[in-house]
Specification:
CATH architecture: Beta Barrel
CATH class: Mainly Beta
Number of helices: 4
Strand content: 35-45%
Helix content: 25-40%
Number of domains: 1
Distance between the termini: 40 Å
Largest sheet: 7 strands, antiparallel
Order of helices and strands: EHEHEEEEEHEEH
Strand order of the largest sheet: 1-8-9-2-7-5-4
Oligomer: single chain
Radius of gyration: 19 Å
Shape: globular
Number of strands: 9
Structural class: alpha+beta
CATH topology: Small Protein B, Chain: A
Length: 151
């Protein structure tokens, strides 16, 4: 499994409740660009439309060696999930104020997959709290490392 792109901003802006793996419907030039690692998930989100789940704002760069049939970089892409999973995610998004964010894009046995996270937005004070917690953990690790080096 090769991770192509991570959405670090999602972990900063959202609290992830659960995650699910989904396939993506792609064209030939899109998968070539993904294999080259030219993907940006920063402002991407998924949204149910009818009985399908679509991925919006994922930027997959144009393939340099592509012809005039090259793909549009930010076109909506259909996600492949079981009907039960789509219905469950759609229900949570419409009722409880959740949003669906892509967390990472990776290749699994040569097939592109995206990990979707069911997320709620963080408030400003939540972001500050998580940043302070991370900083405290780093400080503790540094102190432990220094203590081990002294003895």
């Amino acid at each position: 499994m090769k991770t192509v792109s991570l959405n670090r901003k999602a972990y900063h802006d959202y609290t992830i409740q659960e995650s699910v793996e989904a396939g993506i419907v792609l064209t030939g030039t899109e998968i070539k660009s993904i294999r080259a690692g030219r993907v940006n998930l920063r402002d991407a989100y998924a949204h149910p439309q009818g009985s399908e789940l679509w991925l919006f704002n994922v930027h997959i760069a144009r393939y340099e060696s592509g012809s005039r049939d090259n793909h549009e970089p930010t076109r909506p892409r259909k996600l492949l999930l079981h009907r039960r999973q789509i219905d469950e995610l759609a229900g949570k998004v419409t009722q409880k104020g959740f949003t669906i964010v892509p967390l990472k894009l990776y290749l699994k046995n040569g097939i592109a997959k995206v990990e979707l996270g069911l997320a709620t937005g963080k408030r400003l004070y939540d972001k500050r709290e998580s940043m302070a917690r991370r900083q405290a953990e780093r400080d503790m690790e540094r102190a432990m490392k220094l203590a081990k080096q002294r003895f």
